[in-house]
Design goal:
Helix content: 55-70%
Strand content: under 5%
CATH topology: Four Helix Bundle (Hemerythrin (Met), subunit A)
Number of domains: 1
Number of strands: 0
Radius of gyration: 18 Å
Distance between the termini: 22 Å
Order of helices and strands: HHHHH
CATH architecture: Up-down Bundle
CATH class: Mainly Alpha
Structural class: mainly alpha
Length: 191
């Protein structure tokens, strides 16, 4: 995959992050205008301090994901997915995406652990700074992942890994882990 495509993907990711932050602020300003006052929150110091746990956990999850998926692999697969969408190519085409299906580590507990880590980070930042716009950013990021990013990626993963991914999807929660863990069915082949 060419450097231009990878750089374009990084720029697109930064635009998405910036856009979601701006949308959080736009919602805040709209609420302030509608209410006639700032819908600010003033969290106690203890709550803000506890937000550091969210931040630390978010960082830990993202770093744990990197044990199973190298950052370059993540970037290449993201670029590949965006390229397929832009060029309207079939999602089942492997093209540059060569990663195998590996439901281990954090992937055994949640289908999208990196996004879960980012959600924890965004809410952790909002709570630690006691910032309404940044808490709204966390909400926007969560909606982005839930309504757009994850459905697109899951259609691609379903096309690439078939029944193995279907079984995994039936067992493991989408974005928020809640105790269910992936257990391959006897005879299930890891793609």
């Amino acid at each position: 995959m060419g450097r231009i495509v990878l750089v374009a993907t990084i720029v697109l990711i930064l635009l998405i992050v910036s856009g979601t932050i701006l949308l959080g602020y736009a919602i805040y300003w709209t609420l302030a205008s509608f209410l006639g006052h700032s819908p600010s929150i003033n969290l106690p110091f203890e709550a803000r301090l506890l937000a550091l746990i969210l931040l630390g956990a978010g960082i830990a999850v993202v770093l744990d994901v990197m044990r199973y998926r190298r950052p370059l692999d993540v970037l290449v697969s993201t670029a590949d997915t965006f390229t397929k969408l832009i060029k309207r190519k079939p999602l089942a085409e492997k093209t540059m995406r060569t990663e195998p299906f590996v439901p281990k580590g954090p992937y055994a507990w949640v289908r999208n652990p990196m996004y879960f880590g980012v959600v924890m980070l965004s809410f952790g930042i909002g709570v630690s700074l006691s910032s309404t716009p940044l808490l709204l950013w966390g909400l926007v990021v969560t909606c982005w992942f839930w309504l757009f990013q994850i459905p697109v990626e899951e259609r691609e993963l379903q096309a690439l890994f078939g029944e193995t991914y279907s079984e995994y999807r039936r067992q493991v929660p989408k974005l928020f882990p809640y105790g269910k863990r992936y257990r391959p069915q006897p005879g299930t082949r890891q793609a």
